[in-house]
Amino acid sequence: MSSDFDEDQNVPYAHPPDGPPLLDRADNVRFRWHASDRAPLHENRQQVLLEVHDASSAAASDRLGLDLVAVLDVSKSMRKKDRLGKMKTAMHFVINKLGPKDRLSIVKFSEEAERLCPLLSVTPANKPHLMAIVDGLQVIDPTNIRDGLETALGVLGRRRISGGRLASIFLLSDGDENIGHATNVDVSDVPVYTFGFGTDFDPKVLDEIARRSKGGTFNFVDDGENMTEPFSQILGGLLSVVVQDLKLIVSPQPGDSILEDVDSRLYQQTRDDNSGAVIVHFGDLFAGEIRRVIAHIRLPAVGQKKNATAITAQCSYSIRGQPFYSRRLPVPIRRTPTGSADPSRTMPVALRTERARRHHVTFLDEVRTMADGGDLHGAQGKLVEARNDLAHEQSNPMIDFLRATLDKLLGLITSPGQHAGFRAYLRSLRTSHDRERVAATGDVKGVRLFETRHTSAFRGQAKRFEKQATMGHRPPAHHDSNFNEDDDDTHRLRDREEGRTRTRMERPVAVEARNNRPWKTWWGDDDKHRWSSARSTSACAWVLCILCVLLVIGAIVLGILLFAVYNHKMPYLAVADAQLGALQYAGQDGTVQNLQLSIAFLAINKDSRADASFSRVNLALKLQGVDMLLFRAPPFVVPPDSSMPLQYNDVVSTGRRLDKAGMRSMDKSLNAGVVPFDLHGKVRTRGNTGIFQNTQFWTRFSCRLRFFFPGNGTVIPADRRSCRSRWP
Asked: Residues of the chain with pLDDT > 70: what percent?
């Protein structure tokens, strides 16, 4: 048995700790909540959206070592359209990206499965051996997915080193299984990421395997696409995992609330009958991933207004074998006589959007059932119904994406010869929604659902890897399994997350001119001629410099005059509306425990002839001099004589602390019932101003927002009208 494994390699291993779980003071897992902040006094039902965000660093020293088993189909159908060659290229990329702390085993299957190598540490010495195994793959006739899957589970099950390590299976197939039943294999303890290649396979089998596994996804790859990018997305996520075995504990507050249900979609949950708490088991998280649940609660009737707690949330997880628990998050709700009995009237946009997404997935389930039963006409009608259902939702990036995916599904189901691709795409999309994890479904309008910075970075590297491979060059091996921060795709996704666009500039090369001819002496005849020439040249240079300075001054004055005349045509950003949803402040130590705010900006272009470009929006919201929130936006264009809204709904800040002066000012503000926030920043725009065409300039943003609080949390209108970006 020991000969099966290369256990002598120095792979990371975590020994079980002796002590109890620790409080994670680094906040590797963070919460956000979205709910109505007021409820009536009589008995009513409310919903709370909880978002669990992986905030770990995923640095090389923090991420877990990966034990990966690649289960590869070598059946006869892999000869079609160079599928075998594409699979080999994808495996070359995987081997290149893994490092010495990772281990890889390769299993091939056709009529029977064969383990081609044990779990080998992917060291520089072992990489050529692994490459040779991949290059030597040949096709055989039958397809026995079950045997391949069981062989992979056997490899992982016989590991002696497993503590604090990440185990996963990649399963690729392009055909229907004709031996065994792979869906009967128990994969509940390991993530299985399945990849269906082409349109000849049965998507139901691969989808069911992924759904029954611990966090796996089904990825659909059409024949016109390469296999490297789908592999790379999942691999990038796996090589960023820090948080393992994540569990979310949602608890009611005795006397204040009753927890009726927690909608966690595909993720398993258990209930504590004594406390009424629900535990949702999420498993391992890619760095930067978000998991969302909707808690359905019932609030009992109360006799008078009071501050209540709707639910509390807490997480448990492990990092490199050490168990941790997060800080507890109470979700407050105020019981008042003026609270709305209809939660939908005060429902935050984030909760409304998540409800629409889940309802969309329900439509996809119904469409899948109809398509599997051969009722394509009914499936098409259900897609149209889903599209009409979204017409009532307010436009935002998620809603727009859902509409685009429905349009793509409608295009596939109405196109002859695309029905097989429609079924596979539908299942892949559905599993991605249920897992809230990126999967290969093809991008829609350039957007990939649930993408993280790490999955995007690896996908960008895979594109370049494929390009080099098609040119006949084997790309060089990467010496580190971490992604390269200089990748264009990494920059684009990171900038999109931060709401900005990066302008990449090459550093100029400094060249110093030298004259190698030696001078004789400064008083020689030749030198006198040079000295005289130098004086003459110097005088001319001074005259030219003076003229240039005068021209520059004239241009500046003219520019100021023109900007003063045409300033009303400059594009600008203004505050359209603002709402202070929640503010929990601990006066003892000056900590803002919870701040929840919604704000809407309006980008305005008054020029009736030309577009205006906003290339950077970067604004900071301060409370008593302390940064609370940053509002950023990616580049956008406003058409002539029109405006465009920028909506920031239910943004949250926690744990900020004021200094002593800020605490005194805060106490005065709360006593007065008006809390001031300062909004500062710069907005870079480009537009036509006077005779200058397509001019770029900065405008500054500086205003004070004062909110009625405690009260209805609305902004005082007089301040809102004065809040706009201005030049200079």
From this structure: 82
Lookup result for tokens 């209108």: 717
What DSSP assignment string belongs to 69-125?
A: EEEEE-SGGGGGGGHHHHHHHHHHHHHHH--TT-EEEEEEESSSEEEEEEEEE--TT
Give tens-digit pLDDT for 155-193: 999 998 888 899 999 999 986 777 778 999 999 999 999
Helices and strands (H and E) in the chain: how many: 14, 28
Q: Across residues 690-714, what is the average pLDDT?
A: 71
φ, ψ (nearest 5 deg) of residue 311: -150, 165
Residue 315: its H or E element? strand 306-319
Single-letter code of the amino acid located at 508: P
Give residue 509's pLDDT: 25
- Work out the mean pLDDT of the chain and round it to a whole number: 82
Give the CA angle between residues 280, 286, 287 to the nearest 5°: 115
**Buried b / exposed e along 496-511 (16+ C-beta atoms within 10 A):** beebbeeeeeeeeeee
- Classify 649 as helix, strand or coil: strand
Token pair listed for 678: 């300062």
Long-range contacts of 710-713 (CB under 8 A, 24+ apart): 710/670, 710/673, 711/673, 713/579, 713/580, 713/581
Residue 391, C-beta contacts closer than 8 angstroms, at least 6 positions apart: none
Predicted pLDDT of residue 461: 92
Amino acid at 94: V
Report the distance separating Cα 363 and Cα 389, nearest Å.
10
For residue 706, which of 663, 680, 677, 665 has the smallest C-alpha distance?
A: 677
Banded pLDDT at 1 (limits 50, 70, 90): very low
**Which residues lie closer than 8 Å to 192 by C-beta, 6 or more apart?**
149, 168, 169, 171, 209, 210, 213, 216
Q: How far is CA 383 from the centre of its chain?
A: 27
Class of domain 64-239+443-474: alpha beta
Using a cut of 0.90, tell me whether the model's pTM lies above it.
Answer: no
Q: Are 291 and 305 in contact (CB under 8 A)?
A: no
- Residue 710: cis peptide before it, omega within 30 degrees of 0: yes
Question: 133-142, 286-295, 587-596, 684-693 — which is least confidently predicted?
Answer: 684-693
How far, in Å, CA of 314 to CA of 516, rounded? 74
Beta bridge partners of 715: 707
Q: Please give the class, per CATH, of domain 21-60+242-347.
A: mainly beta
Strand partners, 597: 580, 651
- Do β-strands 192-197 and 218-221 pair in parallel, antiparallel, or remain unpaired? parallel
Q: What share of the chain is helix, strand, coil (3-state, %, to 5)?
A: 35, 30, 35
Residue 364 banded pLDDT, cuts 50, 70, 90? very high
> Within 10 Å of residue 391's Cβ, how many Cβ atoms?
8
258-263: strand order across its sheet: 29-34, 44-54, 290-299, 258-263
Cα separation, 69 vs 84, in Å, equals 18
pLDDT per residue as tens digits for the range 7-31: 445 687 777 787 899 999 888 999 9
Pick among 2.40.10, 1.20.144, 2.60.40, 3.40.50: CATH of 566-726: 2.60.40
**Distance between CA atoms of residues 512 and 394, nearest Å:** 60
Beta bridge partners of residue 638, listed in sequence order:
612
Tokens of residue 311, six digits: 């639910």
Residue among 174, 171, 242, 239 at smallest CA distance from 211: 171
CB atoms within 10 A of CB 644: 16
